[in-house]
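Hi V.,

You were right to ask for the full record rather than a summary. Here it is.
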Amino acid sequence: MARYTDSVCRMCRREGTKLFLKGEKCFSTKCAVQNRPTPPGQHGQARQRKASEYGLQLREKQKARRAYGLMEGQFKRTFVRATGMKGITGENLLQLLELRLDNVVYRSGLASSRAQGRQFVCHGLMTVNGKKVDIPSYTCKVGDVISVRSTRKDMAHFQIVKEGISRVVPQWLTTDAANLTATVNALPARDDVDLSLQENMIVEFYSR
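Predicted structure:
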């Protein structure tokens, strides 16, 4: 499967906002968006033309896709699934993205970034309700308990997590740092999303 291998900070600079792709670096003074707010490339500092309506919709879609680390096919399938749910399609889409197992591992503080959360899941380090799950796109449900496998709790990263989680954990999650577990207490609401997204523009992009 194709994957992005260039600097992920270029993605943040292209979208003009933090996508939180580099873990703790995104919260430090080394953040590329703060130090170089222009788009990447030799023409990044050139005067930009006013974006069309399609261009604005595309940027919002790309911003969400890159933030959650999905390929185009995966993202579109998630959108199609959201359209079949009751409620507002845009909010349903964000809810499905937030409930992905790799995102839950990140949002609970057990991983420093979504990419690291995905790596933990793929390598079989995480369990859901006591059973190993190695599918990053697994959709968590209310009441699910996500934890680190007992054989991996002695890893250096998790020893640091045990000392305390500095990041704010959303209200729909409860994290027990000492035991390296996280519980899904409720479905994530629109206000719980930590990204500046206009989901209505994503819906308009796919509804053309």
